[in-house]
Each structure stands twice: as C-alpha cells, then as structure tokens.
Amino acid sequence: MEKDRKLSENELEQVSGGWSEEDERKLREEKERSLHGKIVRDMFGNVTFTDKTGVTGTYTADQWNKLRSQWAYTGNPEYYMETINVSELNGVLAGL
Known about the structure:
- By secondary structure, the chain is of the alpha+beta class.
- 45% of the residues lie in helices and 12% in strands.
- It has a 3-stranded antiparallel sheet.
- The chain is rod-shaped, with a radius of gyration of 23 Å.
C-alpha cells in the first residue's frame, strides 16, 4: 500500500523545509539581540549607548563607571545595562 511506504535515509536528506536546530539557535540569538542595546566606547573611555528602542545616549567615562557601579553586584553590569532604556539610565545617573 502507498500509505505504508517510508522514505529511505537518502530520500529524507533531500526533503527541504521544516525547523532545524540551527533555525532555533538563530531565532534565540535574534530575540536576545532585540532585548539588548549596543555599547560603543571611544579611545578615552566615553560611551555612546544605543538602547533596544534605538534611542542614543552619550556618557563620559566617569558617568559610565558610576552607572556600572550601580549594577556591579550582578557580576556583569554592562550586560544588565544593555537591557535598560537611555531614559532610565539618565534617571539613575541624575540620582547619583
């Protein structure tokens, strides 16, 4: 019967489509990137930070280090800071 027919290994390799582990990994990476901003330092240590919404803030090295000290307890403050909006960082900085 036709419905009892199974594909051989060679035939299975020729099948396209479906969801692979590579596709899943790429999706996780894209999702992770969308939750984080981007930190760019100049040669003096000043930072231009673009948050996950596309808003950009510029900080002196001293300001950035003060902000980093607020989340130093995390062990990776900049990873955490990348998830925060520029307006939130500015609010924290104003309170320091």
